[in-house]
Design a protein that fits this description.
By secondary structure, the chain is of the alpha+beta class. Helices cover about 20% and strands about 25% of the residues. The chain is built from 3 helices and 6 strands. The chain starts with about 30 loop residues before the first strand and ends in an 8-residue tail after the last helix.
Length: about 160
């Protein structure tokens, strides 16, 4: 069981008075200690209701964000991640930019062994956009390349 010392720095979880952010804010992200650093395992987080704004028109964009990582010493706390992702609601950026911003913020926060972020955005003007970005330490570079290749869609022929 985790002790209060293990939970040091987690301020949002269990806090009933948390205000939802209105602007992009990476400072919302919090971490906790990985108590199983000897194990190599994958954590996947699923945000099916991601929203942001088109930087040109200000129109809302809706997407589904998947974040997967192999932790090292620190792990992202899910409520802080929820508030962080919510902070994109009034942020105007292209889908590809949002995915790379999330990747970079989480990489800086956790320093994981491997991290990937994928967005599946609803069609706008008849086109869907599915950006994928990943990073890895030197021991996981082969995995990074493999996952990048896997995320190139295969066309379906008639």
């Amino acid at each position: 069981m985790r002790t209060e010392k293990n939970l040091n720095g987690i301020t949002l979880l269990g806090n009933q008075g948390v205000a939802y952010p209105t602007d992009y804010n990476p400072e919302l992200l919090e971490t906790f200690i990985n108590v199983h650093p000897e194990n190599e395992y994958v954590v996947t987080l699923d945000c099916p209701e991601f929203t942001t704004l088109c930087p040109k028109t200000g129109q809302p964009d809706f997407g589904h964000i998947y974040i997967s990582y192999i932790p090292r010493e620190r792990m992202v706390e899910s409520k802080s991640l929820k508030l962080y992702l919510f902070s994109f609601r009034n942020h105007g950026d292209f889908h590809e930019d949002c995915i790379n911003i999330i990747l970079n913020d989480l990489w800086k926060l956790m320093n994981p062994k491997y991290l990937e972020v994928k967005g599946i955005f609803m069609p706008r003007g008849g086109i869907s956009i599915y950006p994928f970005a990943n990073r890895a330490d030197t021991d996981h570079e082969e995995l990074r390349i493999q996952r990048l290749r896997e995320n190139f869609p295969q066309p379906t022929l008639p």
